[in-house]
Amino acid sequence: MSGKVTLVGAGPGDPGLLTVKGLRALEQADVVVYDRLVSAAVLERIPASARRIDVGKEASHHSVPQERINQILLEEALAGRNVVRLKGGDPFVFGRGGEELQALARTGVEFEEIPGVTSAIAAAAYGGIPVTHRDYASSLHIVTGHAREGGTLDIDFEALVRTKGTLVFLMGVTALPVIVKGLLDAGMDGGTPAAMVERGTMPGQRRCDATLGTLRERAAEMEIRSPALIIVGDVCGLARELCWFEKLPLHGKRVLVTRPGDRAGTLSDKLRGLGADVTEFPCIRTEAVRPCPAMENALDRIGDYQWLGVTSAAGVEAFWTCLRGMGKDARALGGVKLAAIGSATGKALEAHGLTADLIPEVYDAAHMGEALAKAAEGKVLLLRAEEGSPALTDALAGAGVAYDDIAVYRTIYDNPRSEELRREIEAGKFDFVTFTSASTVRGFVSAVGADAYLSRFVGLCIGKQTASEAKKYGIRVEIAERATIDALVELAKNAAGYDEKI
Ligand code: SAH
Q: Is 145 touching ligand 1 by the criterion CB < 6 Å?
């Protein structure tokens, strides 16, 4: 049984612009064959189980020749695999998608095509340029600026100028002088608005506003590089009014997120939604203590306790898995009251149908201890990390409240030392590094080395304890107003010097 090739348009870079159907195809792939223009954020969506074949690693002259790509697609499909051929933008817009499908059609291998969002429209849109507009342009022309052999451009400039439509040139950075001269010679007014959008829809997007007459000079000043669009036409005049992407509060900010892999998602997505260029570097993970006789024992005698306290989602999961493993469910908890350290831990309880009776005003160990000390009339059971903060137990002990403190999970720092990350940090690649617990600080420092130059970025810390851990290593810190992900995101916005205009 032979497999199948699905040609998928990856969109211009922003992973949100990958189509629903394209994402589904990617998730079911055995092999993904991709080009240089597919963004890292889209490549992250490839399942770990799929093999990746990069056919465009170097600049175009080093990339895998087209015949070889066709051959790879054929071989993989004939071996019975589900092959996704992933291409930047839309596969049929200067993407050679047609050629690849023709080669497959000749062999009888089954194929399918899933269109993508082309950069020709989307990169312009993210630059605040609508490619058509009733007042300014009634047609759109997408043109390649790639020279044929011999270096000449096969473009009928006079015909283009006559259309009075919006002109979008792809692959035109090198040929920019030839394109500008061609249009001017064909009679286009030098005052016609023109623009370039570099790395459109991606966090590092830059736009250059000019007129046809000044475009070369402006692009040279800004050192615009490929991939970039050249857009010529009156619609370019709307960019200043309509640009929204570059105005996002974290646009251009590079943020390293150090949360454990399984919980990084929300924070990263929220930061990306505000325009940040996010790199995930999960530097700790948690592992439930298994078996955990102390916890089983305590849960068997849950009636001895008045309160059960949890301090993280990982603790809630360890507790719940243990309870279920004992063949019990929520009914076994009887009348015990539940305390959670903060809203996220409270939500983790909610996921199992349990509501916290107590969440302290300030989400940290000391405040939870104080609040519990006040509320408790009987014994307290704490199910938390092996290295849980003593501030919680000190507060209980100080108030004479009896407690059992059981370690139900531990933090593992098994991240390999990363010289690459160290170099990037020292070169100032990141504006911010987020720390959501003191253990993420320790995990991060162990990965880059305590002797690394750590004052090159600002550490965005979820709370005071996290910040004091970071300060030990010379990290410059900012502290969130509350120990929540939303407050951390708010902190990033403020640290980026953004004043929300109401
Ligand atoms: N099939 C692709 C185009 C491939 S040709 C599509 O539909 O988008 C490659 C050219 O596309 C680049 O030279 C550049 O002009 C343009 N391009 C691709 N991605 C881009 C991006 N994110 N921003 C600006 N231009 C881009």
A: no
